[in-house]
Write a structure and sequence with these properties.
By secondary structure, this protein is α+β, with helices and mostly antiparallel strands. It has helices spanning about 5-10, 15-25, 50-60, 60-65, 75-85, 95-100, and strands at about 1-5, 30-35, 45-50. Helices cover about 45% and strands about 15% of the residues.
Length: about 110
């Protein structure tokens, strides 16, 4: 799982959001665009993830997600991450780190 602010896609990568999404989806990934109003990122952001890989992470952490009242479906999980900036000590951070590929908590 990853994300890029829309400003970064447009100004650094010099791509349109549509072109960026097309490229990542050609690789078999899913992408979701969140506006500035829907996201904790100032310009909005595009989140990219492998549905199968994220589903496996969520399954491994299902008990923790349930205890923290977080969704276990990939789409709803991505939406929740996009909408909230969490503190490093939030109880759900091990799941988020794993979803982003940081295995230090595993």
């Amino acid at each position: 799982m990853s994300y890029l602010p829309i400003k970064t896609i447009e100004n650094v990568l010099e791509l349109t959001v549509s072109d960026y999404r097309s490229k990542v989806e050609q690789l078999g990934n899913k992408s979701v665009v969140f506006s500035a109003e829907e996201s904790c990122i100032e310009s909005g952001a595009v989140y990219v993830y492998s549905d199968a890989a994220l589903e496996a992470v969520l399954k491994d952490y299902a008990d923790m997600l349930e205890a923290c009242h977080w969704p276990i479906s990939t789409g709803e999980f991505v939406k929740k991450i996009a909408s909230e900036w969490l503190k490093e000590d939030a109880p759900v951070m091990p799941v988020i780190r794993a979803a982003f590929g940081d295995s230090s908590d595993c």
